[in-house]
Structures are given as structure tokens and as C-alpha cells.
Backbone:
């Protein structure tokens, strides 16, 4: 209970000690022990994605099934404020000016985490976090097999296993409602965004449940990283154990628009020139995306 109240209300160790009538040493010891035990449950409660079955939200919706049946989830990064030593602040300072950890997450369409990695410096772009995570076997990233793929935003490269929207074309839900775009790419981007929105909603629910993720916690950096993973574990447990609070599902995570514009279809995931193999994967996924777009447009005009 000490841990859950602390992460849910962002109580300091001193405040928790006063609330529970224990010394700060006792509270800190119990908090760290509980956090460590919850992190150990991550392999049981977080992922991996289901690569064998079509998600119900896609299978039961004609607007998605014909085009996204091989989609197995959505990916994005989110910044969690952190405290670091003075000599590390430049590395952890993000584009918005505060120090943070860049957290990479994969979610399913039931708004559960299927993969989370924390600890990356806030100055590192989302696409590089993904690239480095995929390249290091120690992270055990769940690379989609065969024709399966994750939905990503335009900050990531459109390549095998990762389907991004068209750049330079409206793809936010509110943009299309406002402009009423009827072009092929806008139609694709709209449906892509409406499905990928699951990751933003997941982040919104997660941060609403655990206020400690929205403020700077007074803990060592390693503990701050473990808190992020522990909150993801508890989030998944709650999502599997009870109905979602509708009031929470409406809140989306704030996303850094500048980060989203640094990726692209013709550059590598860290902003470096693509390798020949990367270019081949991008061309393949580009053709796949174009085929989906043409199919959507043709069906729309027929109906």
C-alpha cells in the first residue's frame, strides 16, 4: 500500500512517513523492496505481443480489417521527468528543456503494454532509441515476424515491421476533422492515426493513474527507472483485472511535434543515412503503404 499510494499521489518519503506513522528510513526501505518485486513481475505481465491472432478492434471493424489485419500494436516514446546529477543534465535534457527519460513502449489495442524499456536519455530521439534497442539482444525487442508490423508516427522510418503515415500530409485526427481532407494520403493517415491513437491513450491513462510519472521524483536514477517499469506492470494488472475508467480513456499523452518531424522515409532511424538493406526495407514498406492507400481510396469511391 505504501508503494501504490506513493506512486499514485506522488507522495514524498517524508510525507509517506507522516501518513503511515513510520520513519523515512522504514518507508524508503519498503518502497524500494516493493518496487523491486513488482519489476520482477514484468516478464509475466508485460507482453510479448500476440503475433498469431488479429486484434479484435481490427477484426471487428471493416474500416480496419481489410487494411490493417497484420498490425499487432503501436509504438511510441514518451518523456518521464527525472532528476540526474549535474554532469548528466545535458544528456538528459530534452527538446522541451527539462531533464527526462525517454521511454519506448509497445502497446496493444486493449491499451496494455507489451514491451517497455526505460532509462534512455531525454536528448535521444525516439527513432534512435528504437534502433539501438532493436540492435542490442539484451533488450529482447519483439521484432514483428513475416508480414506483421507495428504502427508508428512520422518520427520513425517507414520500413519492414513498422508502418508510418505519409509525411507532409495531415494525419492528426483533429486536422482531418477541421480540413475535411479527401485525398488518398489523408484518408490513409486518418485511419492510421485513429488506430495508432491507442498508444497515446495508453500513455494518458498510465500517467493519470500514477502521478509520479508527471513530476520529478526524489529518488536515485536507477530507482526512477524501476518506478517506470513497476507502474507499467501495475497498469497492465489493472487493465486485465477490471473495467477501464471511461473518464481516463479520453485523455491522451502530450506528444512532442518537433520529435515527430525528425524522422522520415529517406533517412535512418537515428537521422543517419540509410544502409542499402534499410533502403530496401523502406522501399518494400513504401509500396505496401501505397497499395493500402489505393485500396482504401477505391473502396471509398465505390461506396
Residues:
Amino acid at each position: 500500500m505504501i508503494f501504490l499510494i506513493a506512486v499514485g499521489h506522488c507522495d514524498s518519503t517524508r510525507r509517506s512517513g507522516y501518513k503511515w506513522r513510520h520513519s523515512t528510513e522504514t518507508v524508503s526501505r519498503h518502497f524500494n523492496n516493493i518496487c523491486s518485486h513488482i519489476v520482477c513481475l514484468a516478464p509475466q505481465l508485460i507482453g510479448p505481443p500476440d503475433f498469431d491472432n488479429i486484434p479484435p478492434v481490427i477484426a471487428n471493424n471493416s474500416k480496419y480489417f481489410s487494411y490493417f489485419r497484420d498490425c499487432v500494436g503501436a509504438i511510441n516514446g514518451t518523456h518521464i521527468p527525472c532528476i540526474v546529477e549535474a554532469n548528466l543534465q545535458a544528456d538528459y535534457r530534452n527538446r522541451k528543456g527539462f531533464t527526462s527519460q525517454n521511454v519506448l513502449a509497445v502497446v496493444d489495442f486493449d491499451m496494455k503494454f507489451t514491451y517497455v524499456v526505460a532509462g534512455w536519455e531525454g536528448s535521444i530521439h525516439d527513432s534512435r532509441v528504437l534502433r539501438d534497442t532493436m540492435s542490442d539482444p539484451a533488450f529482447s525487442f519483439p521484432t514483428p515476424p513475416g508480414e506483421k508490423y507495428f504502427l508508428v508516427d512520422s518520427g520513425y522510418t517507414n520500413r519492414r515491421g513498422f508502418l508510418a503515415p505519409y509525411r507532409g500530409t495531415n494525419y492528426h485526427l483533429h486536422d482531418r476533422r477541421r480540413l475535411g481532407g479527401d485525398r488518398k494520403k489523408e484518408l490513409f493517415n486518418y485511419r492510421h492515426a485513429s488506430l495508432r491513437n491507442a498508444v497515446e491513450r495508453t500513455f494518458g491513462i498510465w500517467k493519470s493513474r500514477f502521478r509520479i510519472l508527471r513530476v520529478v521524483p526524489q529518488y536515485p536514477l536507477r530507482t526512477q527507472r524501476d518506478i517506470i517499469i513497476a507502474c507499467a506492470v501495475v497498469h497492465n494488472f489493472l487493465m486485465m483485472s477490471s473495467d477501464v475508467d471511461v473518464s481516463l480513456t479520453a485523455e491522451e499523452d502530450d506528444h512532442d511535434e518537433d520529435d515527430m518531424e525528425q524522422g522520415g522515409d529517406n533517412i535512418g532511424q537515428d537521422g543517419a543515412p540509410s544502409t542499402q538493406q534499410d533502403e530496401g526495407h523502406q522501399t518494400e514498406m513504401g509500396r505496401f503503404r501505397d497499395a493500402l492507400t489505393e485500396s482504401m481510396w477505391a473502396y471509398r469511391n465505390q461506396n
Remarks:
- The mean pLDDT is 84.
- The radius of gyration is 20 Å.
